[in-house]
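Changelog-adjacent note: as of this version, every example in the card shows the full chain rather than a window. The one below runs 401 residues end to end.
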Amino acid sequence: NYYFAQIKGYEALNPSDEGAKPSARTLSGLKVLDETTLQVTLKAPFGQFPMLLSFPAFAPLPKAATTNPDAADVAPIGNGPYRIDGAWERNQEIRLAKFTGYRGPREPMADRVDFKIYTSRETAFTELQAGNVDVLTTVPAANSAQAKRLFGERFSVRPSGTMDYLGLPVKDPRFADPRLRKALSMAIDRKGITQAIYNGVYKPATSLVGDMIPGHRPDACGRTCAYDPAAAKQLFEAAGGFEGPLELHFSNADPTYEQWMTSVANQLKDNLGIQDVKFRKMAPADLSALLNGGKNKGPFRQNWVIDYPSIQNYLDGLYYPGNRSGWSNKEFDALVAEGNAAQGAEAVASYQKAEDIALRELPYIPLWNWQDQSAWSDRIDNVIIDPYAAGLHLDRVTVSD
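Full-length structure tokens:
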């Protein structure tokens, strides 16, 4: 829903008052001109709109998706070269077959595609080694050396738009001083953690923005993201130190989250003298509810997966009004709005100025850039993987006899 907020008439469909009913049934900013043309009127200038349209929320849907959403959920109708074969078997597999009625430009090479569903990436990687899977687009970082050795040229590493941050509840007086937030950042050895836990695959962050995004600056964060325990200790003491227990919040969705949180805890103890550190490991849904409600009492793992290749997506996505950190800044908001109203280099310049403010205030400490790893069997060829969507171009893959 949120991704349609730039279109005129959004507020009429999404009243801000709790319990209020929409005053319209359609977006007034949409007009059908003919069978293949839709005219869109935005509520304000937004130069990133063409990029926004690449997000899957804007993919066309058949009438069946709205007349019977439950049925469409398990047996969706798409517009590509493959069609679903049977129903989606939850937690087991999704089967696709070549769609003989497809008339588009992406004629598929393979007759069918089966998506197998596993409970963990580690299990999927084991199945890939056993020959029970042909492609895995999410090889665990810990298995990178093994994958490179086993698959050779059939192993691919590419930049990702996904990043991890340490979010800080800035409305808590203990985290109100930016000097303390910078001290926490400088006390974290990003290179050491990414090497020990992610086998050197993930890259230490030097910006709030993924390094594959146009307008990314390789050292926007400067000294604040550099490991410097002595300087961190000085800033920490100048800010008055820290009182009470430090609670670190993270989900149990991946074992590496607890591993790197443990490393961060040890470094904050050793470098800043914060001895009373507690872990709050929770189910993802429970953690989201806690953070969205502003009920956490300490730093938290914040992850961002790029929706479309724009700096704006990071800035608006992480620092929206009422964001999890509780941080707000009128100058930042004005610069983002300025960037939204512009295009090209002019827009990027405004977004970068906004990023500078967020890095100066540091409600979110950038930690590392993910790297996407894929591997595939010798049964297939012509494997093309999109670095933005981390998705395999299914129509191009060929299968050997």
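Structural remarks: The mean pLDDT is 94.
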